[in-house]
Amino acid sequence: MKRLAPLPVLMLALAAGLAAAPDIGGVPERVVFLGPAAPVMVYAGRSSKALLEFRVGATYHINSNTPKSELLIPTLLLLTPPPELSVGKVSYPAGLDATFPFAPTETLNVYAGRFILNTTVSASAKATPGAYKMRGVLKYQACDDRACYPPKQMPVEFDVTVKKSTIADTPKTKK
User: How many CB atoms lie within 10 A of CB 162?
Assistant: First the structure.
């Protein structure tokens, strides 16, 4: 007589299979992952850098912010700050030029493995000190060595702490 696996073991196996299963577009639901964001601390009335580390899953790449073909969708980070904060222009790294079997005569500009995007976060002079959530999306098009897949959007979120400015924090003016 065969014994059935306990229900928790079956549920774990099913969950693991679903997490790795491709979606309708043929690519797993998650190809790009956001690493832990370095804490962003900014004084009211000032600016600070925000560095966001992303990782592209093994066997995949995504188009860079400046793909070499107008048919390919560029990677784009869009942030929506709370009213007390603002964000500067996002800086994108140079992509890697590579060729793939699905287009052997074309060179594509891509991100693979780890890449870092950075921007500036500014707090208004009247910002209340405290913790804020910066939210947005990373738009990207994932590809493997056979094909490129429909574009996706990944939620992005990181914390910003606003500190009260003091006289020592303000720039000195010339007399």
Answer: 25
